[in-house]
Prior knowledge:
This protein is an all-alpha fold. The protein has two helices and no strands.
Amino acid sequence: xxxxxxxLNRRSLLKALTVGxxxxxxxxxxxxxxxxATEHSASKKQIKGYHETAHIxxxxxxxxx
Length: 65
């Protein structure tokens, strides 16, 4: 009885596809988050003091009604 040798090329290809797909997804997710964080911190620096945003305004409206 002869043992069947594992196909290392196939395993390497499957491992590379898995790692590549995971890395691509991670980069896409963190890229969006970094862009949002940069935009948020830039808008925060421009406004100083109290300011009424949409969610604060809706909260005030809920207290009146």
